[in-house]
Amino acid sequence: VLGQLRITTSGVVLRGSGINSTTIVGAGTGRLALIKIIGKNWEPATFNHNLFAFNLDGQKLWEVQGTQDLIYTDDNFIYTAGFTFVDDVAGYTQIIISKYDAEGKEIFSIGYPDVPHQDNYVFIPKSIDVSSDGKIIVSSEKSVVMTDTSGTSIHEIQVDIQGDIQSVYSINSESFLITTQNTIFKTDQSFAATDSVSFTGTIKKTL
What is the pLDDT of residue 45? Predict the structure, then answer.
């Protein structure tokens, strides 16, 4: 990310994209609000794919190492997900889901699948959301990986819908919205479709 940004109004929400899908995500109601910058790689992320926080004066407040291809924030926590090699010699890969407090202290980090594993596991992170009961949901093109609220368990659910998943959003703890190129599906808690609406052309903006 190259350039300058000046904000003179509180309560600003930023979301943008740049080369290689680098994203800027931020929200705040005061002068100490954070600007969070995260990079997204098409290939598996590196071990030093770091997360930074800055105040509105451009001062770096903290930096943590991790695996972040996607980021989600609320008033108290930061949630990230990234696909990476955990053993580049053996070729083991995982999707890593992490949770941090507002000061960048890691609360938990958990990976899927377990290592060692036999298959050539590929997961291209598409979206991240947090349900009303605190579960973290990360989508790929054909599946969803979900953790419990404490990060002690993680599992993958294959989603049987037509088209590649672009994003998954939690409606509540028992239902979700899934978007594909031209269809929005409503699903139950097992991600089985219960309703859908299709459009001609492509959905340009998700909910």
Answer: 43
DSSP lists the bridge partners of residue 52 as 37, 63
* Cross-strand partners of 143: 158
Q: Is the dihedral of CA 111, 116, 121, 122 positive or negative?
A: positive
The answer to whether 83 touches 94, Cβ cutoff 8 Å, is yes
For the chain, helix (H) and strand (E) counts, in that order, are 0, 17
Average pLDDT over residues 151-157: 95
Higher-scoring residue by pLDDT: 163, 34: 163
- Per-residue pLDDT tens over the stretch 98-129: 999 999 999 999 999 998 887 789 999 999 99
Phi, psi of 155 (to 5 degrees): -150, 165
Contacts of residue 27, defined as CB under 8 A and 6 or more positions apart, other chains included, come to 12, 13, 14, 33, 73
Query: What CA–CA distance (Å, rounded) separates 175 from 194?
Result: 9
Residue length, the chain? 207
